[in-house]
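lol ok so funny story. i was supposed to be doing the assay writeup but got distracted and ended up predicting the structure for this chain instead. priorities right. anyway since i did it might as well share w the group, maybe its usefull for someone
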Amino acid sequence: MTGRLDTLTSWNADWSGLRVAVLGLSMTGFSVADTLAELGADVLVVTEQASEEYARLLPVIGATLWEGPLDTVPEVLREYAPEVIIASPGFPPHHPVVAWAREQGIALWGDLELAWRVRDKVARPDGTPADWVMITGTNGKTTTTQLTASMLVAGGLRAAPCGNIGVPVLDAVRDPAGFDVLVVEVSSHQLWYLSLQSGPDRVSPYASVCLNIAEDHLEWHGSFAAYRHAKAFVYENTRVACVYNKSDAATREMVEDADVVDGCRAIGFDLGVPGPSDVGIVDGILVDRAFLEERRTNALELTTLEELAASALAAPHIVANILAAAALARALDVAPLAIRGALRDFRLDAHRIEVVAVDAGVTWIDDSKATNPHAASSSLAAFPGSVWVVGGVFKGVDASDLIAERGPQVKAAIVIGVERAGITAAFARHAPAVPVFEVDHTQTEDVMTEVVALAADVVRDGDVVLLAPAAASFDQFASYSDRGRRFAAAVQERIGKDAGDHDDRPSRPGGAG
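and the output, tada:
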């Protein structure tokens, strides 16, 4: 069967009758099934549960749906004898169906491999498919993907952010408008599946970056070494520029170990003074010393920290994301002035160091997107001395090192979530002088009300209250967005109540009437 799969490297290849099982029916799984049905493949979707909308649509597009438990390999899948299994990113390597596919020698793809094979559906004016820029990292992926796409568009390119950012790559590939560049945010889960590629036309991005690496998703990968190995695959077969973080030695090692196309350059970024082939900062000016002929003696100005501050983009970890995005954009010949213009118009998404209120001299910040210790560390570094709201589900990651590093500098800690014991114990060991408060409410609607009440009792004029949980949200909230929205709502409710209490106070005799 491998012989036939090796010929399926174009939208125009003969996919008819190919038996493909699709694991999972999320947004990604449906995009896979829809694409395969359009190609004429025979499609069986296997999922534990399907939404009403997707269950209704699958027969319409010509795919078959099977719903049921997947703790063992369902008999319907064995009898179907798939020639290829395409798994949604939520299925880990140890999942019974994934393990069975590998044992049976069945080709196992992710959505990225299928998207790459059919990327020529809508070609550019010169007849070639869109280039791919691939972005991963423990933190900053989405922001950097948005930044890069904004810079490319400002530079006159038709660019689309897609992938793990929320728009499946297959939807972008099939968009009839067509693009010059797809800016693809890739998760470690997607990269693990990509690492299984064995065909003749492997994914080959124009440029790629791993922004940083720290422990995360250990329950999915099984170990940090496996997680790191998956992340490193972002650099494989890169053609023009491998962008890496000079402040994170692991990303440099990934580039050194990667099998890239001849002539591909390594481009470094960090917040320091750049060397030749780097982007960085000189006297408050972000500069490019990589993509100019005179890079040993000159630099190109991209923007300034002062301008970034005016757009609420001056937090150090955001500046690092900007430098990485600028390196990717410069690799595609986007002019420095276009990059500067894109940054003037750019705004961060909600729940990313978002100021939700400033009242009575206190700044309340929602960084609910800080879902792991590495992200929370960056946020705490940007707002030292804050009242820190921390906790949730840590996905197998130990937060002790984070608390040892950042805990002693916070004014107080308010601990939420089901895994509070490890956090409070770490504070007792590493920052015993810091006041620690626990929120033990089991009702979601009560958690943030109590958080805000506790914080309000601690803060003084000039303080910051920082929601940077360092953990996932699904123990008490629907998502990190839900967690952030509830925090913001509780802050606004408290401010409104305080204002009402103030307005209700009687005037002093002789006061202004």
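The CA atoms of residues 142 and 256 lie 25 Å apart. Residues 504-513 have pLDDT under 50 and may be disordered.
back to the writeup now i swear
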